């Protein structure tokens, strides 16, 4: 986490929080300084590990196994990183609300991303089971054709008897 503070020499930590006064210069901070300040504030927020984890979970959806394992490793490092969660909740209520909202959005986004993959996996499993059943001789091809051909089965009228 301390690497983030070395990005800009004007950003310093005061009591676990980033000091805005350390970035302000004559006439106000430059836009790039504000961006760096915001990045540092987000990275030092106690909910940053949750935000990072939610983001990584989104990236893992549909990723190849090698990439997913690499992302999982990054996630573990992010949770165990030094200084994670050093600031306190309540110091900046606006940032607290932003972090909560963004985490919720990422969780919902991951659910929406996962839905088509889950449906496709279910469909493929069903097709695989049907093919395995056909190949193993579990049902006759004629019976399968008759049920899917759209023809109606003859009905017996029992009212006459």
Automatic annotation (TrEMBL):
User: Which regions are flagged for Polar residues bias?
Assistant: 138-148
Q: Where is the sequence biased in composition, kind Basic and acidic residues?
A: 149-161
Q: Does the keyword GTP-binding apply?
A: no
List the Gene Ontology MF annotations in alphabetical order. DNA binding
List every stretch annotated Disordered: 138-161
Residue ranges of domain KNOX2 in the record: 85-136
Tell me which Pfam families the record gives: KNOX1, KNOX2
> Which superkingdom?
Eukaryota
Cellular component GO terms held in the UniProt record: nucleus
Q: Which residues cross the membrane?
A: none
Q: Where is the KNOX1 domain?
A: 36-80
Keyword Secreted in annotation: no
Q: What name does the UniProt record give this protein?
A: KNOX1 domain-containing protein
Q: Which organism is it from?
A: Setaria italica
